[in-house]
Design goal:
Radius of gyration: 20 Å
Helix content: 25-40%
Number of helices: 7
Number of strands: 15
Largest sheet: 7 strands, mixed
Strand order of the largest sheet: 6-5-4-9-10-14-11
Distance between the termini: 40 Å
């Protein structure tokens, strides 16, 4: 992968800090939570791709938000008889092809939210997010003051990598990345950042990346972010594994990268071992499978 493409990726997901605004973790200490700007009290939130862990939805409702849940993979609502949480058994895609599918614009209109401009969107739809954001009208993006998304199957080796970068760049036109977190349930891709093949330029790209966006607004001043990721607000998705160390994805300079070397090495060791052993484990699995026939 050319260094120019790698640099383009990091530019597209570069976090900035919202000056004077506090970040909080909503959704508890387990998988399914997000770090976001402290939300105001009361409003509208969309939770797309709910699953069976709905702590984020519940905490948002405790702040007075009406939460509209959408997930066509569930046989029943994950929470019932809640005055502020309403479940819909539809999957959300870029285009409606089946009866149990809807588009984001359709559900916004169905809920009479076409004129709302301060909503919050939380989305985890297992790779369908790429096409959805690629085809989504910009005016719909502008309706959400915060967008929390888990992006899946990111890989510098994939033929879709350029297209994925273009989706990030599209979102950057209306919103600013303010927080990132790698899901340690997924793989980790090692890349050289900065063009020099030394440990100081070794970085990683998680296959699953959780990103928090805040709408670009004259009332918010975005300044350089010098935090080391993961931060004290982050938690490992799988507590049995070390969290993914992303390092300094905001400000990029030699001093910061020298500081993070030790932290990187300790965390990367687990993933490097898994990366080295994975082909051997796959080969063993294939041999066992062949022997069992």
């Amino acid at each position: 992968m050319k260094q120019a493409v790698i640099a383009r990726f990091f530019d597209a997901v570069k976090p900035m800090r919202a000056a004077g605004r506090k970040k909080v973790r909503i959704g508890g200490n387990s998988d399914g939570a997000y770090v976001m700007l402290e939300p105001k009290r009361g409003g509208i939130a969309y939770s797309i791709g709910v699953g069976d862990v709905v702590r984020w939805d519940v905490e948002m409702s405790e702040l007075g938000y009406q939460v509209f849940q959408y997930d066509g993979t569930l046989d029943s609502p994950p929470i019932v008889d809640h005055p502020l949480i309403k479940f819909h058994g539809y999957n959300i895609f870029a285009e409606k092809l089946k009866s149990n599918e809807r588009t984001l614009s359709e559900i916004i209109n169905e809920n009479v939210h076409a004129d709302e401009v301060g909503m919050i969107l939380q989305m985890d739809i297992e790779t369908a997010e790429w096409e959805l954001f690629e085809k989504l009208d910009e005016h719909i993006l502008q309706q959400f003051e915060q967008i929390l998304v888990e992006f899946h199957n990111i890989s510098p080796k994939s033929k879709d990598f350029i297209q994925q970068i273009e989706v990030f760049e599209k979102l950057n036109k209306t919103h600013q990345v303010i927080h990132i977190h790698g899901n340690n349930l997924g793989d980790l891709h090692f890349v050289w950042r900065g063009g020099v093949r030394s440990i100081a330029c070794l970085s990683c790209i998680p296959a699953s990346l959780e990103i928090t966006y805040v709408r670009r607004d004259d009332s918010i001043n975005f300044i350089p972010e010098d935090s080391f990721f993961p931060t004290e607000l982050d938690r490992a998705n799988n507590p049995r594994r070390p969290d993914m160390v992303l390092g300094y994805w905001g400000e990029y300079n030699d001093t910061l990268f020298a500081k993070e070397n030790l932290k990187k090495c300790k965390s990367y060791l687990f993933f490097l071992i898994r990366w080295i052993l994975k082909p051997l484990l796959n080969l063993r699995h294939r041999k066992q499978k062949k022997f069992s026939r």
